[in-house]
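Batch manifest, entry 17 of 40.
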Amino acid sequence: EDDLAIFRGVQRGLLPGGRFLVDFLNADQVRANLVEAEDRDDGTMKVSIERRIADGPFGPCVFKRIEASDSVSGRELASFEERVRLYTPDEVEALLGDAGFTLVGERMGDIHGAAFDESSPRFIRVAERS
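Output type: structure tokens
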């Protein structure tokens, strides 16, 4: 509902003929290639990242927890969590349609305009206000 409200707000803010580009993770690619844990250490700071896919309150999500600590003392410097909804291309297109947009062109799989397929890193779509 929140995402639909955002799309509707964008649609209202555009002039007729105005275009809106949406760029999402390719959910299939994320599921197939999720790196569940990684650590980085640059000598002064250690960063630990944990990821998992689970159902959130509004559908499947990638949950990511990031913790940064001082490499020498081990003292925690920062930590935060984020949640990113994994939309399918059909769900994104339905949201755009429900928000009053007309889809323009084809599905794209990267920022260079390559055709979308299940191995694409991104799902990108252009929509236009009628």
